[in-house]
Amino acid sequence: MANTTASAISTGLQASRDRTKLIRDGLRKRHTTEAIFKWSGLGAIVLALGFVAILFADVLVKGIPAFTQANLHLTVTYDPAIIKIEPAPVRVAGQSDADFNRANLDWQRKVALLNWNKVVEASLRAEAPAGYEIGSKDLLAIAETDSRHTIRERFVADPSLLGKTTEIDVLASANAANWIKGNISRDATDAQQQLAPAARVLIDQFVDNGTISNGFAWSIFTNVDSRAAPASAGLLGAFMGSLFMMLIVIILAVPIGVASAIYLEEFAPKSRWTDLIEVNINNLAAVPSIVFGLLGAALFINTFHLPLSAPLAGGLVLTLMTLPTIIIATRGALQGVSPSLRQAALGMGASKTQMVFHHVLPVTFPSILTATIIGVAQALGETAPLLLIGMNAFVASVPATPLDQATALPVQIFLWQGNENRNFFESRTSAAIMVLLAFMILLNAVAIFLRTRLERRA
Questions:
Q1: pLDDT, tens digit, for every residue of 272-305?
Q2: Are β-strands 212-216 and 165-171 bridged in parallel, bridged antiparallel, or unpaired?
Q3: Starting at the edge strand that comes first in sequence, how are the strands of the sheet with 212-216 ordered?
Q4: What is the pTM of this model?
Q5: For the chain, how long is the longest CA-to-CA vector?
Q6: Cα separation, 303 vs 416, whole angstroms
Q7: How many other CB atoms are found less than 10 A from the CB of residue 393?
Q8: What domains are defined for the chain?
Q9: How high is the pLDDT of residue 432?
């Protein structure tokens, strides 16, 4: 009997040890699996952040030099021997405003017909060492082509400068900037250089004596795109075009998208018709953006004859593209509201409309706002649909209204990336990307700020 009892106890202890070992082995495997999953997730995050950091670092390294530009400090003499023009008209007694303006415009037209390149050339030769041999074409290649306009506009504003000397700063040409910044190897042969040898030597002398100095490139923010004067090309026109389009998207897509989501989620009866609408909204959210560009070209340009390359047409196309995102996000936010909130509102005697707009909707404002800003930021970076409605056209003016021709920031980046003067516009392209990213980060920062404020109120 004692032996049987001892054997049973021994068997029970062995079984307990076996179970304990199995449990420990199972726990060890689970902990190992959890650790692998944890470190795999962390590794994926670090890898993704590393790729983003590499991308941002590449953009910054290439784009930062574009925010400095080479300026020429010239001593300009308005020599009467070169500027052969009669004095500016002076208003006489009894002369009407129309007659005086006509005479002034005629004088300005004559001034514009003068050869101002000779003035630029004389100013450059005055800064060069005495007796330095260089041809007129090679010398003028140092200054940007719009330098003559800057010097001429100073004279038009003050005709008394005739026969006088004044200090004027103009931009160095894009080719000169490439040479100064080292965008082209100095060891390359003359056939591979953009400037003649005499011009390159003179540029180095100008840098040494202070005639050429680097300054902040305000022209990126204050000028429009330019093909005749690449060094003065800027983003102002594209920025205003993007701003007009974003305003149109916000004005149209947000209220329409939120209202549609509220109706479908709270008021629409469940039927095959609403099911079909929901399926199509989900499908539209996955449609490539270029398809919306085709739709916009067919509908807004060919059918409604909206102006080609206008921010209005671009804004409407981006509105159609953004609507599904806002509707889906708003419906998701509404579905996340606790049913008890709806039941409590209805139990207190509120109507369904009051329940939705006074109790449910305010709770979802932070989520709706975040989704809206994300959708708008996504629309801001779209290029493909805008190309199909003509917004890749060269526009050398700032749009005053959404009906004026314009381009957009992502399209401007696309155009600069394909510019034939790759050595100069590669950094300008990265600088434009930095501006676009800053714009998008600003939108997201506004969304985070407003969401935080609304969550505190809620």
A1: 888 888 888 888 888 888 899 888 889 898 888 8
A2: unpaired
A3: 165-171, 68-77, 212-216
A4: 0.84
A5: 142
A6: 31
A7: 12
A8: 2-64 (no CATH), 67-231 (no CATH), 236-457 (1.10.3720.10)
A9: 92
